[in-house]
Amino acid sequence: MPVRKYYCDYCDKQFQDTTADRKRHVRGIQHQQAKARWYDSFKLQHQQPIPPPKPLCFHFLNTGFCRYGDSCKYIHPNAPNNMQQPQPIISTPPIGNVVRDSMGVSWGNLPPSLQPPPEGGYPHLPFVDWG
User: Fold this and answer.
1) What is d(CA 57, CA 73) in angstroms, rounded to the nearest whole number?
2) Number of neighbours of residue 14 by Cβ within 10 angstroms
3) In degrees, to the nearest 5, what angle opens at C-alpha 62 toward C-alphas 61 and 67?
4) Of 28, 63, 82, 18, which Cα lies nearest the Cα of 10?
5) Residues 16-74: pLDDT tens digits?
6) Which of 15, 33, 34, 73 has its CA 20 to 30 A from that of 86?
7) 8 A C-beta contact, residue 97 and residue 115
8) What is the C-alpha separation between 34 and 48, in angstroms, rounded?
């Protein structure tokens, strides 16, 4: 009967499939380094490089004027075009009936089954015998 082989995806190696051989392989430095490289490859894929900050335009700082204007590759710190103003948050109201709780917080456009009961309660319905 042939001996079964175990294949390690991290190391791209095959060896005998015994408990002792697996433990020896998993504890080995080559396996641990290959496993670390494999996990690190995913970290690098998800990180986006941060662009370095642009340097200041010394000519603009000294004279208050830059002959390149908006096309200058340096930052003009006090220029009105470079002033970073907070963008206003514009929210559009949802269309249709909007359910609000007692504090006035919107719960969005809920289906009837999820809407809270009316403040006066549900109207009394006459008893109907089904049957």
Assistant:
1) 8
2) 10
3) 80
4) 28
5) 999 999 999 999 999 999 999 888 887 766 666 677 777 888 888 888 888 888 888 88
6) 73
7) no
8) 24
Inter-axis angle of helices 29-46 and 19-27, nearest 10: 60
Tokens of 11: 């190391």
Helix, strand, coil distribution of the chain in percent, nearest 5: 30, 10, 60
Tell me how far apart the alpha carbons of residues 3 and 15 are, in angstroms, rounded to a whole number.
10
* Residues contacting residue 35 through CB under 8 Å, at least 6 positions apart: 10
Nearest CA among 16, 35, 38 for reference residue 26 = 35
Whether the pTM exceeds 0.70: the reply is no
What DSSP designation does 69 have? G
How many whole angstroms separate alpha carbon 26 and alpha carbon 6? Answer: 12
